[in-house]
């Protein structure tokens, strides 16, 4: 939390996107015999997955175990995992805004807030719990494409051919996300991350017109309740606009040098990232060299939260992830006040 | 060709990546009853597809009908289309450089050069024919992943865990690509494009170490035989390094504003691009507005070749593609000499 505020720290803090996941035997054990949705909606199990990953890895924050598209259910979308998320009734050209419910009662996501409370109880006081949600664009993409997409043809066609409907739909999503994140903070999260996992498929003009206003609206309303990490992946050319949308911390993916990315978003902002995730499939000396290169790029500037540039992947060796945590703690920077960098 | 050399032109020239493809009824007709590989290897049919697309659309250049991974066959890789390209014997950790043949005789790709000669005969003298090949990185990715990939885990793991083998393999690919492109130019192409369709999955440090030397080696050797368009997609942060690798023209994808991208690669270089391809699924007024925005970003500077930011897609309306050609010809810039922009 000090790094979020760009205050001096003893060493660079880190957590790892998707740190509680399939690559961990502890997770596989907890999840056994449950479908993914059953698991997400069971606060006891989701809390256990959250806590055990934090403990096993020794990272400096817990991240809520949940998934991005579940917030679409109370908006009227049918969600299934096959095993990736699939929407039964995608929102397409020809749909109207009345096909989507307004999220009046965020209590419909109560299982998530129950998980937050359970995790918070089991977590040491000095370890923050990070909540999260998909950004309006990324959730719109799930709802419109209906499943994984390579070219985002349905999403972009709706944007270009029905821009008013796009904005109505994105506003509705933005209002739901805002309520959802504030409720996570109220339930006990110290910080929340917005995942714009798919906005990298856009050029800057499209991002400015179709993404930025809705993302900005969410962040403006959530920030007074707790700090926001605004994470974008897939296109470094969008970083200045992503920073314009707001967030106490900007999450960087691995496609940009951390030093360059930090410059692009401005040194008056904390950043998170950005080790190439596939490096964790390599041997330990490579992991060490690459992690140090990320730390070097941060140059001891206050406000760096170490993370991968995207999530940890199934099949990765948990020992490599643990080794990364030790490397960052050992070689991380004891940073001074921001004023030393003025 | 004047635009390639940044000389004054009467209006912005254009061609369209994958202009001869499945979206065209003329292509479907020519291709009927043939597998994709049979079609590629039949110079009469491949030439007809090349020529008919050029004529139907009225674009300013023909692009050879061929596919990127076919050059892998004479290197010893088994190639099949299911319907995307699949390699029977992918190159992986544990493979040795002896598992890959050195391309001694480029005549093994003779069907491509026969196609070039046939197209050149059927093409008006003032219409250039563009040849092409995959860049060393993109071909290595095909050979290593063996099929489409989301995270390039095998590619990156081989890079990180066996860097010497990576460089040996990439050098071998670079030598084959060099011979292949020079032979295309010798057979009658006026220009060639290198497609780095997948390098956008890398960060700048990886690109500098693992991609740039091999790409540079190809371009240095091919350029004296004819101009090279160096096209990269997926990561605008790589553009300065892509320009460093060389090429008379740098191809820009849609993830960056053309004006910004041109600045990044330097105004002493021609650029190609970069309309968001999915715009062609929208209605004509949108296509017109967006095409004009790209032309505006070029600002009449000499050395702009209009293109999409990536290839045209199956299912697109051929009338929209034809309309784009007319829009660009009508609204394109009569450019002056480069010295006016000094």
Automatic annotation (TrEMBL), chains A, B:
GO terms for biological process: protoporphyrinogen IX biosynthetic process. InterPro entries: UROD/MetE-like_sf, Uroporphyrinogen_deCO2ase_HemE, Uroporphyrinogen_deCOase. It comes from the Bacteria. Residues 13-22, 130-146 form the Uroporphyrinogen decarboxylase (URO-D) domain. Keywords: Cytoplasm, Decarboxylase, Lyase, Porphyrin biosynthesis. It is found in: Cytoplasm. One of its GO terms (cellular component) is cytosol. Its EC number is 4.1.1.37. Substrate binds at residues 18-22, 67, 142, 197, 310. CDD domains: URO-D (cd00717). It catalyses: uroporphyrinogen III + 4 H(+) = coproporphyrinogen III + 4 CO2. It is an enzyme of class 4 (lyase). Catalyzes the decarboxylation of four acetate groups of uroporphyrinogen-III to yield coproporphyrinogen-III. Belongs to the uroporphyrinogen decarboxylase family. Homodimer. HAMAP family: URO_D. This is Uroporphyrinogen decarboxylase. It comes from Stratiformator vulcanicus. The gene is hemE.
């Amino acid at each position: 939390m000090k790094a979020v505020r760009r205050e001096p720290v003893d060493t660079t803090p880190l957590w790892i996107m998707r740190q509680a996941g399939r690559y961990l035997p502890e997770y596989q054990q907890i999840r056994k015999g449950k479908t993914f949705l059953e698991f997400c909606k069971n606060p006891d199990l989701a809390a256990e997955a959250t806590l055990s990953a934090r403990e096993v890895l020794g990272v400096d924050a817990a991240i809520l175990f949940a998934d991005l598209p579940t917030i679409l259910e109370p908006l009227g979308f049918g969600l299934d995992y096959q095993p990736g998320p699939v929407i039964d009734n995608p929102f397409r050209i020809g749909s109207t805004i009345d096909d989507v419910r307004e999220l009046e009662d965020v209590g419909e996501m109560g299982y998530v807030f129950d998980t937050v409370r359970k995790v918070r109880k089991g977590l040491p006081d000095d370890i923050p719990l990070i909540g999260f949600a998909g950004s309006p664009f990324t959730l719109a993409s799930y709802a419109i494409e209906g499943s994984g997409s390579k070219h985002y043809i349905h999403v972009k066609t709706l944007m270009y051919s029905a821009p008013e409907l796009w904005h109505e739909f994105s506003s509705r999503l933005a209002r739901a996300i805002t309520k959802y994140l504030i409720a996570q903070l109220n339930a006990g999260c110290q910080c929340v991350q917005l995942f714009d996992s798919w906005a990298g498929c856009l050029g800057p003009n499209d991002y400015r017109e179709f993404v930025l206003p809705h993302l900005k609206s969410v962040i403006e309303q959530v920030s007074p309740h707790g700090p926001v990490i605004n994470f974008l992946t897939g296109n470094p050319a969008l970083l200045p606009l992503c920073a314009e949308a707001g967030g106490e911390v900007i999450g960087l993916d691995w496609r940009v040098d951390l030093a360059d990315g930090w410059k692009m978003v401005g040194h008056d902002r904390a950043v998170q990232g950005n080790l190439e995730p596939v490096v964790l499939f390599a041997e330990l000396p490579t992991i060490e060299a690459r992690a140090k290169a990320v730390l070097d790029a941060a140059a001891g500037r206050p406000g760096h939260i170490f993370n991968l540039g995207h999530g940890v992947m199934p099949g990765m060796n948990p020992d490599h992830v643990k080794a990364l945590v030790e490397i960052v703690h050992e070689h991380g920077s004891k940073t001074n006040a921001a004023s030393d960098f003025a």
